[in-house]
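Record copied across here:
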Amino acid sequence: VSTQSTGDSNYLTMASAVAGTDPTIATIVSNAQQKFNAWTAAHTQHLSQLQAKVSNDTESSESKIRDLYKQEQQLLAQAKAAAICNGVNPDQLTEIDHKIAELNCKLQQNNAGSVGLEHKIAATEHKVTEAVEALKKYQKETEQYRLEKELGVMAYEKRLGLQFQRVEDDYLRVVFQQIDPRDPQKQFSVVVCVDSDDVYQIPEGSCQPHVPVLDTMLDELRATNDFPAFVRKLRARFVELAQVA
């Protein structure tokens, strides 16, 4: 602005020198000089106002910063005084702040670890679901086997006259019918149990009628643990006894 105003001022000075010889030019120059002076005064005032505003804003900002710093120092002093009043060492507060920061860090790590744990839980739940489904399938197959076994027992009872009767808690009475053609409903039976050593036992006198080779058959049963074979052989011996009789 100052460069432009200086140039304009020099121009008007030269124009005034020329205007001394011509009244019309003198009038034009005079008017131009007045306008230039007014423009210069207005811009000078505007610049002064801007400079004052910038100065005031700077002082205001610095004043706010100083006030905020004072407030911070006052709050720190109050916190320290409160800590001392309550018997707490300010250094302990700093240490506690550090511990809190460490705990926050560990918490973030635990949160990250919990995501992995959730995946493991989900995998375990999936395995449990598969195990439950497998168990249901096994139960269904077991139930089907039980029904088939019951049907087989019914077939034995109907065709061969074979029955299994529980005697007290630990004894099983095996009853045969359809043995003697002269009396199909006549019963031939034996009582069998398993002792505390898991050894088959036949109480004395429980086999009706008595089979002479019963002891040998019992030894074979103990050796093979094949109870169905024992039942088949015993029936054959009862058939022999019925035929002899």
About this structure: The longest helix spans residues 90-160.
